[in-house]
Amino acid sequence: MNYTNLDQLESYKKLLGAEKKDLKKLLSKERVSSSSVKLGGDLKYNWASIPADDEIIRILQDLADEAELVEKYEEILRGKMMNPGEKRLVLHHLTRGNVLGEKVMYGEEDKEAFYSKEKAKIKDFSEKVHSGEIKGSTGKPFSTVCQIGIGGSDLGPRALYLALKGYERKMEAHFISNVDPDDAAEVIKSLDLERTLFILVSKSGTTQETLTNRDLVLAKLKETPIEGFVPNKHMVAVTSKTSPLASDKSLLASFFIDDFIGGRYSSTSAVGGVVLSLSYGYDTFSEILEGAHEEDVLSLNKDIKKNGALLDALLGVYLRNVLKYPATAILPYSQALSRFPAHLQQLDMESNGKHVNRFGKKVDYVTGPVIFGEPGTNGQHSFYQLLHQGTDIVPLQFIGFCNPQYGMDIITDGSFSQTKLNANLAAQIVAFALGKSDENPNKEFDGNRPSSLIYGSKLNAKNLGALLSHYENKVMFQGFVWNLNSFDQEGVQLGKVLAKKVLKGCEGDEVLKAYSDLLI
Ligand code: F6P
């Protein structure tokens, strides 16, 4: 059904009126073992510690049906224009496989064929770099890659690269994103420029930070006093065919995405594909795609108890709109996922941090929560104090794995480090849910603090792809419920315009002057 406001939905009204549940009473051994849904790879999503009983789950199922959430996902997959603000299709799922098995055409163009061709190019290029067939301009093989990009052209690819660092690498990867010159300086000083391949990534080809860093890197490369050194032959581009970068034939190679892949959804396109294939090999990138595709297929199930992304999305809506919790913390008990919360910040907040619905009307309900996070157990020694005893309740999303990546571990005090890590994870879930009474209020834990858990055997490429897609699809389903266009980002424009306006005549250290100049 088409609706403009949530309260037009009978199921939503029912959800608002449903009796709130006490997590302390709800949580049981039986509930823990019966509350998991299979995700892609060997991941599972467990919602035992969310205060939703059978009645709430039934209403959420009604909400999914009434709001036609899976049907809307199918429309995306069929190539309907689901980003009306920018008049664009939303095709990131197609970069990892055809979920419905139907052709997706844009005019005369077969979109699946376009993405397959780009993947074949990435495979061929990365294999030639690894074999030494493609070398640096002075004849030395490339040993290092360095991605220049920001936002979606940085966060997802960087998070995925770091997530697999426990596995064998073919090339080391570095990333330059911030226009702060110290970011580039710090990275460049560690590079052997003769052996470094730069990947310039910008879908639009107009992003100030990325173009500035490109110029800085090229200027540095031009200073290289080695005979025969050709800076542009140490750089490839990943961009859209319509971007100003697309026509630069002087670069070593160009790879293409198109406007139908949103920046924050682009990790499985050439935006992530080139750097991940160069650093880990194309086969590893393929495994990421396989895990993501598996999860995309599971996300088609209309039964919310069999569709982890949909269930996670709906429980999130319950926590946000009914229980009114303002934030969500992402807490991976895996150091390798250190930048994953940063990626999810963009994915979630740039998609659903909106107050106008897809019909251009202001909404009268709350939308996307604030997202933040850090790996455990480090976070426990930082912000968990507020999570346990602060005045706001923050729903938590834990992520954990049975085995470490490196296989290097030690028994001290009777247990492996990995066992200690997971014991902490389990302890936190229970501490948040059940709390502890104490005569001293300062030592009392109220409990009733909800959390969910995604867990699997190991953080490998396939599970990583499934994890990535789980969150992409969760955010997409939530955007459908809230009736938002989750695929544009008008809210980032004003700052960019003002920065450009004040840039002329402003010296680097004159922040206060620029600030007041804008107020005239
Ligand atoms: O500033 C917002 C944004 O448009 C993001 O959505 C995007 O991921 C990022 O900038 C980078 O864009 P581009 O790949 O076009 O350089």
From TrEMBL:
Active site: 350, 381, 496
Pathway membership, UniProt: Carbohydrate biosynthesis; gluconeogenesis; Carbohydrate degradation; glycolysis; D-glyceraldehyde 3-phosphate and glycerone phosphate from D-glucose: step 2/4
GO biological process: gluconeogenesis; glucose 6-phosphate metabolic process; glycolytic process
Any one GO molecular function term: carbohydrate derivative binding
Keyword Isomerase carried by entry: yes
Family: Belongs to the GPI family.
Protein name: Glucose-6-phosphate isomerase
Organism: Candidatus Ornithospirochaeta avicola
